[in-house]
Amino acid sequence: MKSITRRAVLAGGSVLPLVTSGAARAQAKFPDRPIKLIIPWAAGGPADGGFRILAESVAQKLGQPVVVENKGGAAGMLGALALQDAKPDGYTICQMHMGMLRQPLLNPQLKYDPIKDLTYILQLTGFVMGVVVRAEAPWKTLPELLDYAKANPGKLNWGTLGIGSTQHLAMERIGMAQGLSWTHAPYRGTSDTLRALLGGEIDFASESSGWAPMVMAGKLRLLAVFTAERAKRFPDVPTVRELGLEVVVDSPGGLVGPRGMDPAVVKILADAFRAAAQEPRHLEFLARLDQPLMLLDGPAYRDEMAKTMEQERALLKRLKLLPT
Fold this sequence. Notes:
The protein is α/β, with parallel strands linked by helices.
């Protein structure tokens, strides 16, 4: 057997830094090919528009195309399902929305855990939701509407874009806290809900800010918003919490990837999207839709979603919406 010389030991010791630096260089190469960004909605909607702006900016920052792929349908679940089969290499990522958290609770056939089976990259924005009535309605404030509902059990009809939607659950929380009896009417989308409201089919709507143009045109009256802060374009409209009701709904959304992503790759993506989110073009887009910027790093985003999921589970159980 050959003896191990001092020269050999020294030579061998010099290999380790080379290996380490080689791994670092390999990591620094991410991305070295196009990144696929899944939007689980049809093209042309608010989520699609905002993420296309981000994709364009991130592509410039990372030096690789960020290719948007729309996967609409199935209540926005196709993106989450696609991530279950994707490699956790950072080249397939997806817009995260509250439905991806809630739908597995409502649908046992969705065999993924929204906390354990996703890598949370970055929380980006929230949505403004509020309670609107027709301009000629007798209620000038949300307390007036709630007082009427108390005095007239079962008389009011109200609409949202669907059973189990964020808008639906937000209003149900108010109803349960106040002990109200009223009738919820689910519609296929925000535009259908608002059309029904204008047509007199329902008395009020709990919806996202698709109502903004109609409020500004004087066709609808905004009574309150569910967000933590007042909407910038409607500074005179109070939040629900300001009115003494502890219901705050920002409906945060962001960016996720498959389970098991390399933290270094997550950081590269998070840094690029965080910077893109704060650029003027994206901020202008958010302002047009009354969407607040709500940046939150991946681990904190995941922790918040885990808490939210348990809160939603309890609420859905109280509403008897959980499968038996």
